[in-house]
Amino acid sequence: xxxxxxxxxxxxxxxxxxxxxxxxxxxxxxxxxxxxxxxxxxxxxxxxxxxxxxxxxxxxxxxxxxxxxxx
Length: 71
Description:
The chain is of the alpha+beta class. Helices cover 38% and strands 27% of the residues.
């Protein structure tokens, strides 16, 4: 499943760090985090998607505490 999310991230450097960390999560097939667009695209298996998204949020907030997934 490929899904797009509106996000809030404060800087391009933070977006790049979050993207690199998310790509390391087990089950992630692809990920992109755009500072300019304030969007995040995640590709992961349907059956694990919700579980993976919880880990995505945890990892992102560890790097950038102000990171938010808005929808």
